[in-house]
Amino acid sequence: MAKSVLLIGADTLLGREVRDRYTVGDVGPRLQSATLEKDAAAVFAATEDEIEVVAAVDETMIEEATAIVASNFAVEAWARIQQADAATPLVDLTGALEKEAGAVLRAPAFEATPVEAPIHLIPQAGTWLLASFLNDLHAQAAVARAVVTLFEPASQSGRQAIDELQKQTVALLSFKPLPKEHFDAQLSFNLLPRTGEDSKISLPEREARIGRELQALAKLHGAGLPVPSVRLVHAPTFHGYAASVWVEFAKRPNLKAIVAKLKEEGVDVRDESLDPPTNTGAAGQSGYAVGAIEADRNSPTGAWFWLAADNFRLQADLTIEVLRELV
Q1: CA angle at residue 217 from 95 to 203, to 5 degrees?
Q2: What is the pTM of this model?
Q3: Which of 3.30.300.30, 3.40.50.300, 2.60.40.760, 3.40.50.720 is the CATH number of 4-123+316-326?
Q4: I need a labelling partner for 89 at 20 to 30 A (CA). Which of 36, 62, 212, 276 fits?
Q5: What are the tens digits of pLDDT across the range 215-245?
Q6: In b/e form, how buried is each residue of 307-326, taking b as 16+ CB within 10 angstroms?
Q7: What kind of fold does domain 127-311 have according to CATH?
Q8: CA–CA gap between residue 92 and residue 37 (Å, rounded)
Q9: Helix (H, G, I), strand (E, B) or coil at 250
Q10: How far apart are CA 133 and CA 266, in angstroms?
């Protein structure tokens, strides 16, 4: 039987993006959708062209897989790998396994050699957005420090969060009570530095995870990559990250030269002739876009940048890079 890559959670928003990027990425082995749900099998997708049935993961599938990608049930997937005593590497997109022995945070662009590990952790989308930007910027002009306000969309918390934001919007316009099961707060037409006490998500925990991952990536980078101070804010948007970034350079920056160099490196730079990037405009795009670049009036070595990126595309593209090494 030919080797395959198992994708657990192919029906999640992130799982679908990984599946789509894998299809166009010509990685190699067949990608097989799998599940650790209680049901043995379920229809994953029905279109005019195909109907895919998701198989329940068993020991044989684990042993014969080249790699396993988990966009959910990562803890359960790792337990099944251990039970099968298999050497199959697990790519964790959830961050749930960061404290497990042998778990390694991955960023091939920062690594000198391929990594061998039982668990490959994919950084959170916000982490990778900031690390990628600061890496590109630091290569052009030494960055001393940075302060970031990162705006997180509802899609980062899955379909339930998107549904609740939509229902809240409709309820507000209809003068009806707001559903607050997921956020335990009003997100629609609002900005939340923290969600409610009974919320199913924790912004402080996510903020802390981003901080830990940025620290780890800075050490992995090994070339003085700065670790920014980050404040995470939940925004009333459905998709895509945005970030306001203040950067202090080691000396007065030549912003025009920096912009030109970023363009040469393939970054989507929106200069004065273009509108600044938006989270909706970044949907379906790889990498990140940067614009509204301005010198800080109160600091000769400071400058402002505005970033936007597709949160799922960021993680999916990085996952494909890791899988290319593993397969």
Answers
A1: 45
A2: 0.92
A3: 3.40.50.720
A4: 212
A5: 999 999 888 889 999 999 999 999 999 999 9
A6: bbbbbbbbbbbbbbebbebb
A7: Dihydrodipicolinate Reductase; domain 2 (3.30.360)
A8: 17
A9: coil
A10: 12
